[in-house]
Specification:
The protein has 259 residues and is of the alpha+beta class. It has a 6-stranded antiparallel β-sheet. It has a 3-stranded antiparallel β-sheet with strand order 1-3-2. 32% of the residues are buried. It is built from 10 helices and 9 strands. The two termini are 38 Å apart. The chain folds into 2 domains: 69 residues, Winged helix-like DNA-binding domain superfamily/Winged helix DNA-binding domain (Arc Repressor Mutant, subunit A, Orthogonal Bundle), CATH 1.10.10; 174 residues, GAF domain (Beta-Lactamase), CATH 3.30.450.40.
């Protein structure tokens, strides 16, 4: 386990949650020392919290001095996945968009802790001329259709924090739009239910729509990306309507899974 994440929290409850995240993302077995080093916390503190996890069944003892994720942790994770697997549910919708429109379809999931979106799934266009999109890539929210389709629906405080941190575009290196321009763009996205992006200087364009959870929280977005040369073929709202309908279908699945 390596300490590559944010600084370890101070409160006991926050530290417990922090350890669970490290355990869930880490190797199948680990020692107390490895977990403490990865967490950047004193061994004595980690030992105390680890014992609480062992008592709850979320962590189990392994061979020798090792520990491993417990069967209770696996059971809870399985329950959540069984209720709603965003990627699994989105894949047929992405495939249908590619079949109909022959452009790359993308699913992004929003990470509140990172204040960024992660590319969770991609179905590539059959066109040889296409924009490279890789699973696991990070999407900065103030730029592009994928990012702005999420940014427009975040709580005001999160939007403010993201806008303060956003300085220059990750692709262009240019400063972001002025605050009034961004506010107007985000309001337009909220009104029409999708975001457009077009930048012929970098030959990239896209259309994306938000995906919501059962309680109205933003889960991510679903969209299509393409070279800007082909964007002219989709200036009518037919593709935008299809993207929005697919995102609404996915949002409906999320709502049903929690009913």
């Amino acid at each position: 386990m390596s300490s590559t994440g944010p600084r370890a929290p101070r409160g006991a409850a926050d530290r417990l949650a922090y350890l669970l995240k490290l355990i869930a993302a880490g190797p199948p077995q680990f020692t107390l020392g490895e977990l403490a080093a990865g967490a950047g916390l004193p061994t004595s503190s980690v030992h105390r919290l680890l014992q609480a996890l062992v008592r709850s069944g979320l962590v189990e003892r392994g061979h020798g001095q090792t520990y491993r994720p417990g069967r209770e942790l696996h059971r809870l994770a399985s329950q959540l996945v069984a209720r709603f697997d965003l990627v699994r549910c989105a894949t047929p919708l992405l495939e249908e968009l590619v079949t109909q429109w022959h452009e790359t379809a993308v699913l992004c999931t929003y990470s509140p802790s990172m204040r960024a979106a992660i590319i969770a799934d991609v179905v590539m266009t059959p066109h040889p001329l296409r924009f490279a999109v890789e699973r696991g890539g990070e999407v900065q929210l103030p730029w592009g259709s994928l990012g702005r389709a999420i940014l427009a629906f975040l709580p005001q405080g999160d939007t403010e924090a993201i806008m303060r941190e956003a300085k220059v575009g990750p692709l262009s290196g240019r400063p972001r739009s002025s605050r009034p321009e961004m506010e107007a763009e985000l309001q337009q996205i909220r009104e029409r239910g999708f975001a457009r992006y077009f930048d012929p200087r970098y030959d990239i364009a896209g259309i994306a729509a938000p995906v919501f959870g059962a309680f109205g929280e933003i889960l991510g977005c679903l969209g299509v990306t393409m070279p800007s040369k082909r964007y002219q073929l989709h200036l009518e709202d037919d593709l935008a309507t299809a993207v929005r309908a697919s995102a609404e279908t996915l949002s409906g699945m999320a709502a049903i899974s929690h009913s």
